[in-house]
Amino acid sequence: MTSHEIDYEIYGEEMQYVEIELDPQEGVIAEAGSFMMMEEGIKMDTIFGDGSQKDTGVMGKIFGAGKRLLTGESLFMTAFYNTIPGKKKVSFASPYPGKIIPLDLTEFGYKFVCQKDAFLCAAKGVSVGIEFSRKLGRGLFGGEGFIMQKLEGDGMAFVHAGGTMVRKQLAAGEKLKVDTGCIIGFSQGVNYDIEFVGGIKNTIFGGEGLFFATLTGPGVVFIQSLPFSRLANRVLALAPAAGGKSRGEGSILGGLGNILDGDNNF
């Protein structure tokens, strides 16, 4: 086993965090900004790339960091090590309401592909790379672009999803149509492609975009009910600073109702 063997426990319901227990000399890597708390004896170290064996040497580390730029993430990752005798714990929090999903990569053929901002943390030794799309249509219209994250290794990894998470087991040839933003990730063996919605009314008035993501088995697919991009777009659309207009929460008085009830944000 090349990855460190870690123990963990997930706490919470809508705003979850994962607590990882490290034996002496064990380590975990995490996305910058996901750290929550740690016990005394844990050492934090900022590293280029993911610190896996694939990033050996100066050029390997530079290339590993460059891969992270392509996925829209920071150049750096953070590693946490237990440097003293005895078990110690370190915790990482989900950045927005939803679920943290534990992935034993050995159950997925040592590889799992996920959307670019889904990765939270993983056992030291897990490689966090990039997965290029070979299909032009998927890259242009798939919502996730040409590049997704690729988690490889034989250890535990943790990804986060918005809202409620659904796990689907697809049989060989079985197809699932999904909103492009609702995909969390999938195991190797699953074919990811893009399909035109079709129909003039659906295209112009449907409000669901022009394309579906189609996932064809065999393999495991994880779907989220509330992509963060969807939540952010709704908030921005109603933000006064962005030109949005309040809906008055159903009040027939609208903006006047806000003045009368003390919400004088004008």
How would you explain this protein's 3D organization?
It is a single chain. The chain is α+β, with helices and mostly antiparallel strands and 266 residues long. It contains five helices and 19 strands. It has helices spanning 57-70, 136-141, 200-205, 228-238, 255-260; strands spanning 7-11, 17-22, 27-30, 35-38, 42-48, 76-82, 88-93, 98-104, 111-114, 119-123, 127-132, 147-152, 156-162, 165-170, 175-178, 183-187, 191-196, 211-216, 219-224. Strands 5-6-3-10-13-8 form a six-stranded antiparallel β-sheet. The chain has a six-stranded antiparallel β-sheet with strand order 11-12-9-16-19-14, covered by helices on one side. Strands 1-2-7-4 form a four-stranded antiparallel β-sheet, with no helix packed on it. The radius of gyration is 21 Å and the shape is globular.
